[in-house]
Design goal:
- With 546 residues, this protein is mainly alpha-helical.
- Among the domains are: 12-201, Up-down Bundle (Growth Hormone, Chain: A); 204-278, no CATH class; 450-520, no CATH class.
- It is 76% helix and 1% strand.
- The strands form 2 sheets. It has a two-stranded parallel ribbon with strand order 1-4. The protein has a two-stranded antiparallel sheet with strand order 2-3.
- α4 runs antiparallel to α5 and α6 runs antiparallel to α11.
- The protein is globular.
Length: 546
């Protein structure tokens, strides 16, 4: 070990130099790891807590939504209260959420810990790394720094499902939150000695505006998520909080929540208009960047891409476990080629960016991703094996890796130095929002298509005629059984039916599962093509300015 004249080792000085970037990298990795592992353990959680999958899905939706709602103000909080203080508070809050989630005995406690508490804690963990890297580096070094942060997110998406599935299979789903707690302790150790940086403007944060925007988005997304279980308009069943029925009239909870969300967003718009002239508060959302057309185009492209890829990964894990009979770990292994290829191609993009413009790489990536979706659509036929999914997964991973970092760099380049922190926050928020929307729409849609198709086919095969109400009741009961019972429990339930009915229902569910997944893939493909169309209006190079 080399020692300087003052007794300090060179290795320690190097560690001191890299401890903050390492902590920021680990923070992004931890948040990404935490989100993606849930996609493979949501089915075991629903079974263990004896509840419908639709009741656990809000955890995935809300953690992205909570983070998205408060990300834009993360930089403002750092400037007001100090970056280290806000980061450490977020880290502690995130760890508390993991503990609550691991110990939860009910869905409500799981959602509180995993989505609400941890989601709020994740806000500075995903905001400050991008902002501090942008401020600390220039030119080519800045591109390297942003690439390493993108690699942190990609690494989390690779290891999250794999490690989460392994832990859930070996020790149970509650232990999947242990790695995040350990990582949080390591990050705390790395950041603790760092000196505080405080820049306190004579302002206060606009918490009411943030709360209104959060309530509006949350109500809309939860309404979309519950629409399959409770009905789009006419209630399929009553939504209860204790003994209270919501709403207390003949209307489903889904449109009620969506309407409430629109009202909250309307109130937010009115409130923001009144606050815009006042300078005493730091607004959660400021509209200056939204007047830059190229920035908005980048956000739209990012939103469509996030919706499509979130829907793809979530529904693919569900399909692998429910129709190919894979465990959580096996499903993660089957999907691993997608993430590994994405990570490898992402590493290669730094060299490729010297030869091709960012816009070309974004469009090429979206095109390759769309091609992979089309190949997967044609590959998914009854009898398919996980090995046969390898080619489309590799193609899709290559497309995602080719464009994801380039889109971030190109979109954020249109913001000047003064607005760079806020631009990072808005971009991260749109990513999280797209993730939440993708799970809400495609997750709900897949389950609904499977059950409705299976029941309709089984009734037709058996030449049975039932009323609309009876058919709706059958669909609800089969849906809940399909999402909460183990394979052994489902087989035991089928054994109680007459053999002819059991065989018809099993065959119909299997075939309709493939058809429903294919229809879902087509919808995801259309979403990716929308991102490709939006990318046509992006600037060609990072140096282009509005």
């Amino acid at each position: 070990m080399t020692v300087k004249s003052n007794g300090t080792s060179v290795e320690w000085l190097r560690f001191q130099r890299w401890r903050v970037p390492l902590a920021l990298w680990l923070a992004l990795f931890m948040v990404s790891f935490n989100v993606y592992l849930m996609t493979v353990v949501i089915v075991p959680i629903a079974r263990d807590l004896n509840t419908a999958l639709a009741n656990v899905q809000p955890a995935l939706v809300l953690i992205a939504l909570v983070t998205a709602s408060f990300v834009p103000t993360g930089q403002n909080l750092g400037d007001i209260y100090g970056h280290k203080r806000v980061f450490m508070l977020g880290l502690a809050t995130f760890g508390l959420g993991m503990v609550v989630a691991a110990l939860s005995q009910r869905v409500a406690a799981l959602i509180l810990g995993y989505a609400i508490i941890a989601g709020l804690g994740a806000t500075p963990l995903v905001t400050l790394p991008w902002t501090l890297m942008n401020r600390s580096y220039e030119g080519r070094q800045r591109e390297y720094a942003l690439l390493t942060l993108s690699l942190a997110l990609a690494a989390g998406s690779v290891l999250g499902p794999f490690v989460g599935g392994l832990i859930a299979t070996a020790a149970g789903w509650r232990w999947v939150f242990a790695p995040q707690i350990v990582l949080g302790a390591i990050i705390w150790f790395l950041v603790q000695p760092v000196k505080e940086t405080i820049n306190r403007p004579a302002t206060s944060v606009d918490w009411p505006g943030g709360l209104l925007s959060f309530l509006g988005l949350a109500a809309i997304l939860i309404g979309l998520n519950l629409s399959n279980d409770y009905g789009w308009w006419t209630p399929r069943k009553l939504f209860r909080l204790g003994e209270c029925v919501i709403p207390p009239f003949a209307l489903s909870i889904a449109p009620t929540l969506i309407a409430a969300g629109l009202i909250f967003l309307g109130l937010f718009a009115v409130y923001r208009r009144r606050q815009r002239a006042a300078r005493e508060k730091v607004l959660m959302w400021r509209m200056g960047l939204f007047r830059r057309r190229r920035f908005v185009v980048g956000l739209v492209t990012c939103l469509f891409y996030a919706i499509g890829t979130a829907g793809l990964t979530y529904t693919l894990y569900l399909f692998l476990q429910m129709f190919l009979g894979l465990t959580s770990f096996d499903a993660a292994v089957a999907a691993l080629p997608y993430y590994v290829t994405m990570l490898l191609v992402l590493l290669a993009t730094f060299q490729l960016s010297q030869w091709f413009t960012p816009k070309f790489m974004i469009q090429a990536g979206l095109g390759v991703l769309a091609l992979g979706l089309w190949i997967l659509f044609n590959t998914l036929t009854p009898g398919v094996t996980p090995f046969q999914l390898l080619p489309p997964l590799v193609v899709m991973g290559a497309g995602a890796g080719l464009m994801v970092n380039q889109l971030a760099v190109l979109t954020l380049s249109v913001a000047d130095a003064q607005n760079q922190g806020e631009a990072n926050g808005i971009y991260s928020a749109l990513q999280d929002l797209g993730y939440a929307v993708g799970i809400s729409i495609f997750g709900v849609g897949l389950i609904h298509l499977i059950v409705v198709g299976a029941i309709s086919s089984a009734l037709a095969d058996l030449n049975l005629t039932v009323t609309k109400t009876e058919r709706q009741t059958i669909i609800i009961e089969v849906e809940e059984a399909m999402l909460t019972l183990s394979l052994e429990e489902l087989n035991a339930g089928l054994a109680q039916l007459p053999p002819e009915e059991a065989n018809a229902l099993t065959a119909a569910a299997y075939l309709e599962g493939f058809e429903a997944m294919r229809q879902t893939l087509l919808a995801i493909l259309i979403t990716v093509l929308c991102a490709l169309v939006a990318s046509l209006f992006l600037p060609r190079r990072v140096t282009d300015r509005p």
